[in-house]
Specification:
The complex is a heterodimer of chains A (about 260) and B (about 280).
Chain A (H helix, E strand, L loop, with lengths): L4 E12 L2 E12 L3 E5 L6 H9 L6 E6 L14 E4 L13 H13 L7 H13 L15 H14 L4 E5 L7 H18 L2 E6 L2 H7 L2 E6 L1 E6 L1 H6 L2 H6 L21
Parallel strand pairs in A: 3-7, 3-8, 5-6, 6-7
Antiparallel strand pairs in A: 1-2, 1-4, 8-9
Chain B lengths: L1 H4 L2 H26 L3 H21 L3 H22 L4 H22 L7 H6 L7 H20 L1 H9 L1 H6 L4 H23 L4 H15 L3 H26 L3 H18 L2 H4 L8
Helix pairs in contact in B: 2-7, 2-10, 2-11, 2-12, 3-4, 3-5, 3-10, 3-11, 4-5, 4-10, 7-10, 10-11, 11-12, 11-13, 12-13
The chains are: A alpha/beta (about 260), B mainly alpha (about 280).
């Protein structure tokens, strides 16, 4: 039996300011998948995420999230959790950690109403999930980079999603922190039955942790297990040159010979 | 002091200054945090076109300024959201062309009207009883809308994209905020003046931001600073016979300077939390 698909893209084309960002992307993400979406800078990774979120409307093609177009999710909006790039946030904004995580509940609370005690409980639980419960009252401006990242994840978890999309989540986190970060994601995926998509250009680290890799450079090159992707020479096609991969977990070691 | 307050014009001006101080400071909190100061300048200067049109056709200038400012605010929002013209360019165009329209209307009106100075820089003599009712009605309306949509406005101010992903009507909220800014500008014209309203939208909130990292406290402090500037400025205006807009804004600016110098944010770096 095949698992139901959470995201389904059919022949999706996007032009951004007269530049082609995505051309003819077909993609299906199954329920429970842990997917790494990789590609060089400017390959359309973030655009693809924004298409799935309904923030960008494709010029052509069909997008379905949980069986409906993303802008028609309605009451099912909360099924999609999104962790944007940390660098895009306004970290001097005068709010506390718990305030930000509670924002994850706002879409479910409805207009005019205030968060209830139950909403606060969910928000606190989300902070516990990312081991940030002790910093709930802390102001945003007082956090380190790694802590800011975990606040963003907690906010996404507070919506109680089934699909979690993370855009360059490990940027600015050191190698040790990265390792711990992916362990945490794996734990969350298992506990809460999430489907997770991690966008990154750090192939080596992500391929050691995810179950599937998708390589994007305007078009989708492949969507398979990390070992398959790397041994098939897909990376060279995507990046247009040999790619250096440091030995990392079960991924084979590669040395760059030719680099244009 | 007490005889100053026995003048009806001064009583009206005081009530207006308090109301305007409150409303400008509340909306100003969003203006500062969303970095919409230039939009504020665009909307407020467009009021000149509305006031001048009122003069030309012989209707209440403030009454005409309401739809005029609202329309300009929506136009700026619409053009910048379409993305074909950048926001600051859209504001630059709206700003200057509505001012030019104002100058045109004034030119068309036979005989130059000296009252205009009051509209530009505020006057304590200007607030009539009907103005006061308008300020009270629209001001309360703005505050009620902010109170009702408090959490939504907070979310879109902090992270609009995330708010959109959560299913909040971010476009509507953006245009609503522009509308609230337009109404705030209009009720401030009589006491602060078209040219100087912008200052009251920005300075109290910016001063408050120097003092706190808590959103609600920032708004409260902003209101306090706005009211103190409004009332203090009004008395200075009375004693020195100066345009009230100038004295109110300069009082606010002085408070900002003190807050800036003594800001706890500047004195010590935020202690980075340990893992």
């Amino acid at each position: 039996m095949t698992k139901p698909s959470v995201v389904k893209l059919q022949d999706v084309w996007v032009t951004y300011h007269e530049t082609l960002a995505l051309k003819g992307v077909d993609m299906e993400i199954e329920d429970g998948e842990f997917l790494g979406l990789i590609g060089p800078n400017g390959s359309g990774k973030t655009t693809l995420i924004r298409v799935i979120l309904g923030l960008v409307k494709p010029d052509r093609g069909k997008v379905e999230v949980f069986g409906v177009p993303p802008d028609r999710l309605g009451a099912k909006h909360h099924l999609v959790g999104y962790v944007p790039q940390r660098s895009q946030g306004d970290w001097s904004f005068p709010v506390s950690v718990i305030d930000v995580v509670l924002m994850g509940r706002y879409g479910r609370i409805g207009l005019f109403k205030r968060p209830s005690a139950a909403d606060r409980d969910v928000a606190m639980q989300a902070l516990e999930d990312v081991q940030m419960q002790d910093l709930a009252r802390r102001q945003l401006a007082e956090l380190s980079g790694g802590q800011q990242q975990r606040v963003l994840i907690a906010r996404a978890l507070a919506t109680e999603p089934k699909l979690l999309l993370l855009d360059e989540p490990a940027a600015g986190v050191d190698a040790y922190g990265e390792e711990k970060f992916y362990e945490m994601l794996k734990g969350l995926k298992e506990q809460q039955g999430l489907t997770i998509v991690v966008v990154t250009h750090d192939i080596a680290v992500v391929s050691a942790h995810v179950e599937k890799l998708a390589c994007l450079n305007q078009t989708l090159f492949t969507h398979a297990s990390p070992t398959e992707v790397i041994t098939a020479g897909t990376l060279e096609k995507v990046y247009g040159c040999e790619v250096e991969l440091l030995a990392h977990g079960r991924i084979p070691h590669r040395v760059v010979e030719e680099h244009k | 002091m007490s005889d100053v307050l026995s003048y009806p014009f001064m009583q009206r001006a005081l009530v207006a200054a308090v109301l305007v101080g409150v409303v400008c400071s509340v909306i100003g909190t969003y203006v500062v945090l969303r970095k919409m100061a230039f939009i504020g300048a665009g909307i407020s200067h467009s009021a000149f076109g509305g006031v001048a049109l009122g003069y030309l056709v012989g209707l209440d200038p403030i009454g005409i300024a309401i739809p005029f400012c609202l329309a300009t605010a929506m136009a700026i929002g619409w053009v910048s959201r379409k993305g074909r013209v950048s926001e600051d360019t859209a504001i630059g165009i709206a700003f200057s062309s509505t001012m030019a329209l104002g100058a045109l209307f004034i030119g068309l009106k036979e005989g130059y009207n000296v009252d205009l100075f009051g509209y530009l820089f505020g006057s304590i003599l200007a607030v009539s009883e009907s103005d006061l009712w308008l300020i009270l009605g629209l001001g309360l309306g703005v505050i009620v809308v902010v109170a009702l949509l408090f959490k939504e406005l907070l979310f879109v101010s902090f992270d609009e994209e995330m708010a959109a992903v959560s299913g909040l009507p971010v476009q509507t909220l953006y245009f609503l905020l522009l509308g609230l800014m337009a109404l705030t500008v209009v009720i401030s014209i009589k006491i602060v003046g078209i040219i100087l309203v912008e200052a009251l939208l920005v300075i109290p909130a910016a001063a408050a931001f120097q003092l706190t990292r808590n959103f609600v406290r920032m708004m409260m402090l902003s209101v306090l600073i706005g009211v103190v500037s409004g009332v203090g400025g009004l008395f200075l205006s009375y004693w020195w016979d100066l345009p009230s807009g100038a004295t109110i804004v300069l009082t606010a600016a002085a408070i900002f300077f003190v807050c800036f110098v003594f800001s706890p944010k500047r004195r010590r770096r935020p202690a980075l939390a340990k893992n």
